[in-house]
Amino acid sequence: MRKVRVWVHEQSDGRLDIVDGKQRITSLLSYLDGIFPRNQQRFSLEGLETLSQLNGQANEDLSEREQQSLQDYPLTLRILAQDSGPKAVFEIYKRINSGGENLNDQQARKAAFWSPYMRLLNELADNAILKKVRGSSERDDEQETDRELILRFFAMHGHMADYRMPLSNFLNDEADCGISLTSEQLQQRQQLFERAIGNVYAIWGDDSFQKDDSSSKLEPSLWDTLMCTFSRYELEQLKGKEEALREDLRKVLKHKDFKLRLSSANLLQRQDLYDKRVAAIVEKGARKK
């Protein structure tokens, strides 16, 4: 049996989080249990060339000596020290997961920056409105797509003026800052997100964050702008102005200064332009009352 190498990251409480080797560990444990986790079927060996006589055999079919040998087989652990910063751990996750599970940035970020903030992203990803406008699939959930969108909103809302490419580094900074958030601050983040997406949905419904009527996909840059703008309003302030806001967005999407590009200059220019237009509509409606 080949050596099984596993990278782990030591946590402050002494736990060891698997960085690389989760599939290998899962396969070994599942074989010992006798059940293949994906379909809950009997887990038997197949495709063996060196020990072809074991093909078709589950753990319970092995001799007592073979079972004991498998249980006693040592794992080679590579331990990342507890004081390794999360950004360094993120880079290691990305580097050593270039094969195998091949984690994307958000999957690696969740592991490297794990904290109550990451747990909040998990909870918010179950938001009913988000699921409606995203049409999220099981693959999206596995890929952490919605969690990255939520993190992106918090990052843009709090630090848009500091944005520099690449986006991944910007989101890493946000995840790093989130580690120190208090429970009260996390609750405020939750309320901020729910208010923003609730306001957008009240205006555009299932078409929220789409560039035009022919598109059914959420546009990330439009997500940034609408979420940041409407996080500043209470729903009562927007009532009666829904059609005016829908019509204005159709117009502003054609404006020469409203470019859906992810650069620092475009972000700020687009946000400032749209903030002012929405404020004018809201104030005009308020004066009529």
TrEMBL record:
Pfam families: GmrSD_N (PF03235). It comes from the Eukaryota. InterPro entries: GmrSD_N. Residues 9-113 form the GmrSD restriction endonucleases N-terminal domain. This is GmrSD restriction endonucleases N-terminal domain-containing protein.
